[in-house]
Amino acid sequence: MTGKVLRLWQRVALFWSRPWPWPFGTVTALYAAITLTLGFLGLRQAPCERYVAARILLHGHRIVPEDIRNPPSMTGTSGFYLADRKTLEGKFVAVPAVCKGEPIRSSDVQSTPDLAASPHQRLVVFPLGSQPEWAHWLDVRAIVLLVGEDQAHKGTETEKLATVRAIVCEPAKDPKQGESCSVVLSLQEADEGVVSKNKAAFRLIPSVATQR
Asked: Does residue 116 sit within a domain?
């Protein structure tokens, strides 16, 4: 494709070097047609520009539209040579981190998060049905508290410390409701059973939240 474009430009240069027997309007129209043709040929090529991170994206972070922006180059700013944003949105960062302003490569993301549990830790999927706002405020590595009724001592509250490992979302059954999200938490082995058996009794409270 590059060779064809180069030969076309050579023909254009030869054409412009000759005397002009045609009116200015005809020449202008011809120039516009050539420019549009070259632009079309360029847009048909594979995307060569990459979106950049709007902020630091940690390993396991789920990419949302606010996390990516067009590169600062002229073609990138105008949106030329860029892939569809949907190729990144909803994916999870697979590398240790993508720093602010750095390009986000296809090899930097993956379709599912890494959820290997540490020794003496257990993973719990905690739905955010009654607290959907936390899907946009929490991030991986955030420390949260799960506060709920102590089943062993009725009428008293218990707190369980947990770490956010991932935020997973899927389209809601009703399109008007947007996405249905859950947070994957890492808890102490002794706390996992208590939370898993009675998730509805617990509410999530950020302790040290990494905000978006």
From this structure: no
